[in-house]
Amino acid sequence: MSSAPILALENLTMRFGGIVAVNALSFTAQRKQITALIGPNGAGKTTVFNCITGFYKPTSGIIRLTHDDGAQYEMQKLRDFNISKQAKVARTFQNIRLFPGMTALENLMVAQHNALMRASGFTVLGLLGVPSWRAAEQSAIDAAVFWLKRVGLIDRADDAAGNLAYGDQRRLEIARAMCTGPALLCLDEPAAGLNARESAALSELLLSIRSDHGTSILLIEHDMSVVMEISDRVVVMDYGVKIAEGTPREIRDDPKVIAAYLGTDEEEAAAVMEAEA
Amino acid sequence: MSASHPASSNGSEPVGAAFILKKAFLSALVALGLFSLMIGVRTEAGQSGQLEYWTRFGDLASLVAAVFVGSIIVELLRLWLGPRGGLGSFVPPSVQSGLSIAGRYLAPALLIFTFLVPVIFYNQRYILDLGILVLTYVMLGWGLNVVVGLAGLLDLGYVAFYAVGAYSYGLLSTTFGLSFWICLPLAGILAAFWGVLLGFPVLRLRGDYLAIVTLAFGEIIRLVLINWQDVTGGPNGVSGIPRPTLFGIPLTPGEGGLAAMLGIPFSPTHRIVFLFYLILALALLTNWVTIRLRRLPIGRAWEALREDEVACRALGINITTTKLTAFATGAMFGGFAGAFFATRQGFISPESFTFQESALVLAIVVLGGMGSQLGVALAALAMIGGFELFRSLEVYRMLVFGLAMVLIMIWRPRGIVGHRAPTVFLEKSKSISSDLVKEGHG
Amino acid sequence: MDYFAQQLINGLVLGSIYGLIAIGYTMVYGIVGMINFAHGDVFMIGGFIALISFLVLVSIGLTAVPVILLIVLLVAMAITALYGWTIERIAYRPLRHSFRLAPMLSAIGMSFVLTNFSQVSQGARVKPVPPIVTGGYTLHEGESGFVVQLSNIQIVVVITTIVLLGLFTWLVSRTRLGRDMRACEQDQTMAALLGVDVDRTISMTFVIGAALAAVAGMMYLLYYGLVDFFMGFVAGIKAFTAAVLGGIGSLPGAMLGGLAIGLIETFWSAYFSVEYKDVAAFSILIVVLIFMPTGLLGRPEVEKV
After folding, report:
1. Where in the cell is it found (chain C) (predicted)?
2. Which chains are within 8 Å of B by 3+ CB pairs?
3. For chain B, how many structural domains are there in total?
4. Segment B203-224, tens digit of pLDDT
5. Where along chain A do its domains lie?
6. pLDDT digits (tens, 9 = 90+) for B361-420
7. Could you tell me the fold of the domain covering A1-88+182-277?
8. Nearest alpha-carbon partner for A182 in A119, A111, A100
9. How far is B285 from chain C (nearest CA, A)?
């Protein structure tokens, strides 16, 4: 297993016209750990995510991903779909992006597209219905069923994703991301809009993804109770730059972090204080 | 016409006779304005080339009166159907779900009936010809459905691929003497090739822009067919295209013909029946392949693309190749249909491949309910059948067709079959309401 | 050089006509986000109404050309505007919050209705009119005998276009209606909450677009001396190309795009081949959409994730 961090950002900068959304940001996410990226609204967290997952091409800087076997990928050079296909980075979206007109099961089948394409002989063998394709399809269904069970949605497998409750949709999106078999899972505010019970279940799910499946996790989160409970490491951003980095305990006591929150968003500062207490 | 009037937008407001009359009067007034010159005055170039005109105030008056009466009837209907009685409520949900159950038996029944058409109507050439025409559009509809209904890519130039298929067969057979059965796959491949050629640059366009570019492409193909006289014969088209053979056995009277070989008396109907089953087979092939593809990763990727392109990219799906395969697949079926068209007609010209054809096929797909195979077949039957019913109206036919398109869209914007069937299920296949299904951005 | 100058003049005149139609596309696209497929046919209807009113005016004995032109212009604008209003009311308003494809098909249907309505009501044959505005100026006489001319009709077309363009630019930038339009363009829900009558504003957009198309129709009639029921389709696509080229949603862009398309078409016909002039126009549409989908003066669209 490679000893390099799974993800390393070096001097990542992203400009939109004259606005510098992310300025020379560097941090690492360690293998098989949960790294949280926090910061006040507008700090540039989602922009970082979009750079990592290929939706934006960064203005400058390097985003390096290292697999367990030592294979390295520079994400800023990959085409968008290859970030999932080759570099094995999966993501969820702040404002849930499921396929609403497809069932929960279908959503998870689409996530296994690349593996299934190969198994279907790029459609030719699948069209003929050869046994090896049927076996591959069945194992894809099995994988989907596994994740549906894991996120507690097995009863809703045949329902349209658009018909699921909000919290269910969030979990389905995580299950879908996991079905791509990721090395790194990027979650954009997975706890947003969840109630306390659902948040707790989410924390448990994320911890198990890390320990049982060996997937490293990078998450953006505003819910400090979740962040403080599950993160191994926390990176704090404000105005596009990193202002602190450390363990949850270190971050909690960092005056710069408290100032950043107090100065911008009292509610979240209160949340930090609360988590501390 | 003036439903924007505050009173009508508020259901609790009393709607009296005075209100209805006032609205009808306003509608009539608008109609008077619209038709005053266009109907009231008729122009025509006279003998000397000088433009002359005469008035038709009688026609104008009766048309305005018709609008007045029509407006009253519409208002009364609205009253009768209740406050929310838009046109959309003509089909209550209970009937809709009933339709979906009936749909399970409708498709096999329709298929069996179609197989029997040449037997039942053997002596009715007109019905057989109409059946062939309907089946051609069913096939075109199913082909375009892959692009529009599944992948959510709006293609207004589908007729271009139909033309490529028709001209491929027409030119290959008349120039090189190739047989229909060799040209058929070639026509499909060539059309698919053109589909990729067009698709490659334009597929990153979205929505209406894609629509207008495909429209322009369709027009370019037609204009080239008209102007490239040396190859395409220009406006005169290609004639003398060979009729199809039953794998080499011609359907002609005389020695080597099928009738002579079977020892039965020759009848021109044999060829019509043969053409009927040929297009039926081609249409069913299209249907079978589409149904299979939907259950394969490529088909699911098409539908996922229609639902959310961004999410697809995040799941590692190559958007470009996925769109291209949809375009090529749809184009290929269009090419097959084109080759069939050429062999049936024996003559093709650019006139058969106008924008109106593209619009007609698109209307069939949308009216059918995007993505629904049965819906598309029913829509093709209704549209082409309806079109035939109005044949006696001649010039009014396109007018009626255009009006029907507008009214159908207002009545059922999501088409006849308003639900989507999942491609895979664990316990039970639950159909998904079309309200949830997206229609794509591309 | 003289030939070039003459083509330049011709191209600018043709471009003015395309620009007037393009404004209707651009305004409607800006405010309701749909391609008004029937707009080309509204232009055709405008041409017909101009033709008929002109015939009637001449036959009742009016002889003063400027008076005739003014009356024809006003009648054509008024009645065609009513067409624009009615089309929106019948075919688009019920579908405003419907699925994206529905209004597009409804618009295509409406386009068929208009084309065939004028075919049925006025016959399929081309309607020629004698030259109404005659005369002109010789700008330059070349050594080879080639004459560069600027005809009075060309002057009329360009001046009318400039005046109306100025008028409508003032309308959408300085008046209450213009402000409402821009508000609806940004966010209809918010505009409605702030007391903008969205229905009325959208109706007015169609009315203005149709009125300008009527002007274009009349100019076409004066310039080419004929109208026919099928002229809306190709002119419509070219004007749409112009709107896209200029940057959809932008009024000056539409005019600029119109001039560009007019010039390209004229020069293509003059120097390459007349047969393929439409192919050239359509190819430009494709190339523009692919390589600069925001056009010359349009705003770039940022993809939100």
Report:
1. Cell membrane
2. A, C
3. 2
4. 777 777 888 888 888 888 888 8
5. 1-88+182-277, 98-180
6. 988 888 887 678 888 888 888 888 887 877 777 778 888 888 888 888 888 777 777 677
7. Rossmann fold (3.40.50)
8. A111
9. 27
